[in-house]
Amino acid sequence: MKIYAFIGPSGTGKSYRAQWIAREYGLECIIDDGLLIRQNKILAGKSAKKEPSKIASVKCAIFNNPIHANMVREAIYQYKPSGILILGTSDEMIEKIVAQLGLPEPEKKIYINEVATEKEMERARYFRREQGKHVIPVPTVEIKNQFSGYFLNPLKIFRRRDYETAVAEKTIVRPAFSYMGEYTISENVINSLVLNVVKSFSSIRRLTKVRNRNVYDGVIIDIEISCYYGVNFMSVMEELSKKVAAEVERITALNIVEMNVLVKEVYMEK
Predict the structure, then answer these.
(1) Long-range contacts of 38-42 (CB under 8 A, 24+ apart)
(2) Which segments of the chain are extended strands (E)?
């Protein structure tokens, strides 16, 4: 397979341009910050942006963990891409990545100053330095489970060349190791959001219980309700689960892995 390297200092816009570079050179996959990506889909790996510190982020990006490296190696062997673009901050970093993944040396190296102006790179540095923004070259839906609880901003880039318009979907994320740090959400907040949604249903008499369970890739919410006699329980439960999931994800950025709604009581008016 063809192996190309895309090299430039951290925060100069490599991830922002990765999809265009890969498309221009006919490279099927991208390796960026611990992820193996093909056509906007994550095939394997975990994002270095999810690590708690900059040092841990670098180790993840160079596949220092044998389990992580093996996961990506197996995916490469399974999918057999015709070409891979590897992103790195230096020639040394590229060497470490290809060694860890058992890949051949890059036959071509592309440097960020060859495809971006100094003004463009400085603008990228500003967003990284002042706002802690990092770009991941996949749609938000692809990394939602890895970044549950992080505020993600979807980004669509349109580029027109030779009468052909291409669209690249990316995601902006602020990692925990950025200056913004981490944030937490109280369980009472989720309970209040659920109660607020329940109040909008005339078919539900009251909310009897809410339970939240944190799992690796998000939150599971269990709801128990009391409904009025005569309503269609299935319709109420389905609509409630959709509205609660949408509202909690919108307000908190948590990834709702599972919604369970139970009609615990039936209320019959005299």
Answers:
(1) 38/79, 38/81, 40/138, 40/139, 40/142, 40/169, 41/138, 41/142, 42/138, 42/142, 42/143
(2) 2-7, 29-32, 35-38, 41-45, 83-88, 108-111, 134-136, 152-161, 164-173, 204-215, 218-228, 256-267
Tell how strand 108-111 and strand 2-7 pair up: parallel
Segment holding 68, helix H or strand E: helix 66-79
Cβ-contact 134, 175 below 8 angstroms: yes
Q: Are 67 and 73 in contact (CB under 8 A)?
A: no
Task: Enumerate long-range contacts of 151-154, CB under 8 Å, 24 or more apart.
Answer: 151/253, 152/253
- How far apart CA 126 and CA 187 sit, in angstroms, is 35
Give 11-21 pLDDT, tens digit per residue.
888 988 888 89
Helix (H, G, I), strand (E, B) or coil at 37: strand
**CA-closest candidate to residue 226, choices 209, 242, 205:** 205
Question: Per the CATH hierarchy, to which homologous superfamily does domain 187-267 belong?
Answer: Cation efflux protein, cytoplasmic domain (3.30.70.1350)
| C-alpha–C-alpha distance, residues 268 and 270, integer Å | 6
Lookup: tokens for 8: 């430039």
Domain regions of the chain by residue span? 2-173, 187-267
Q: Name 27's Cβ contacts closer than 8 Å, sequence gap at least 6.
A: 2, 4, 21, 81, 82, 83, 84, 85
| Stated pTM of the model | 0.69
Question: Which DSSP letter does residue 206 get?
Answer: E
pLDDT digits over 144-188, tens only? 666 666 665 655 544 555 444 445 566 667 666 665 555 677 888
Query: Torsions phi, psi of 148, nearest 5?
Result: -60, 130
